[in-house]
Every structure is written in C-alpha cells, then in structure tokens.
Amino acid sequence: MAVAALVALVACDLWVGSVRTWWDQHSLTGSVVSDLLVLAVAGLIVDEVVARRQRRDRSVSVAVQGLIVYGQARRTHDAIVSIGADGQPAGVAADELRTLANMLLTSSPSLFDDPAARTFLEQVERFSVTMFRLVSAAAGRPVEAHDREQLSQEMTRVKESVQPLLIRIPSEERRLLEGTSQA
Questions:
Q1: With contact defined as beta carbons under 8 Å apart, do 96 and 75 qualify?
Q2: Burial (0-12, 13-18, 19+ Cβ within 10 Å), 100
Q3: Is the pLDDT of residue 94 over 80?
Q4: SS3 category, 83
C-alpha cells in the first residue's frame, strides 16, 4: 500500500502541474509525507527480512512435524487398506484416523506458515477426507480394489508433497525419525 501511494505521488508530481505547485508551496508537508513513505517502505523491507529469517530458522522443525504427520498418514492408510483382511477390525482404522485428525489439528498452525508445508498439509487433509469416507462406508467390510487404487494414488501424492520438507532434515536424523520404513 505504501509503495502504491509512493508511485501515485511521484506520477502526480511528474504529470499534474497543480499537484507539483501544491507540493512546492507546502514543503514541510511534502517533507513529512516523503519521510513517512520512506519509513513505511523501510518497515516493509525489515518485516520481510525478519519473516524470511524466521521461516528459515523454523524450517527443520516444520519439516519434522511434517514427517511425523506423514508417518501417521501412512499408518492410517495401511490400517484402512487392511480393514477386513487378516481379521483387522474397522475400529483400528477409525482410531488411526482420529489420531491423524488430532495431529493435523495440532500441527496445522506451524505447517500453514511455510509454503511447502502448506501444500503438504492441504494434500494430507484431502487424503484424510477420502480415508474418512472409506472408513464410514466400510463398516467392517474389506476395502474394494478401486478404493485401494484411489487410496494408493492419493498416498503417492501425499508422499510427493512431503518430499520438499524431507530434504530439509539431515539424512541421518531423517532415518532415525522414519524408523525402519522409508518415505
């Protein structure tokens, strides 16, 4: 907004003679306005620098939260695909889905501020809606083949969306966080 005001004032000063005359006759006002505009632009620059520094400082922490949410999404996916197979009750999948929902609620504020994490968050939220529909419809029946295929495709999209976060975590720490399974 300050930049737009500055551009408008400069344009009027260059092309509108009456505006130029007014500013010439009111030099104190012109000086105060120009000082305020310079201060506003400097404030915007400082704010952006501080915001970038904060995002950079929190990037690993945000990535770790994303990895934890991803792990829960993977466990939830596996539980839903296993409904009815091997005696797996739908209640286990519902419990995993509730855990995922709680993780999403608690990690959303920190994931939302980071552009890559926000993309991941949106993808996991879409995925969780699909899983919720399947758990609601399953009622103890095995998950059908086309539903498994849809879940597999969405899980692939979730995995792709978490990759930009994973590269922020040093590889040795990522292996510890992932456990034995790979992302």
A1: yes
A2: buried
A3: yes
A4: coil
Distance in angstroms (rounded) separating the CA atoms of residues 144 and 83: 10
Provide the Cα torsion 18, 21, 27, 29; round to 10°.
-10
Angle 120-97-122 from CA coordinates, rounded to 5°: 20
Q: CA–CA separation, 38 vs 26, rounded Å?
A: 18
Is 105 a residue whose pLDDT tops 80? yes
Per residue in 136-157, pLDDT (tens digit) is 776 656 777 888 888 899 999 9
Mean per-residue pLDDT for 105-109?
Answer: 91
Give, to the nearest 10 degrees, the angle between helix 27-81 and helix 17-25: 110
pLDDT greater than 90 at residue 99: yes
Cβ pair 102, 112 in contact under 8 A: no
Residue 88 in contact with residue 79, Cβ under 8 Å?
yes
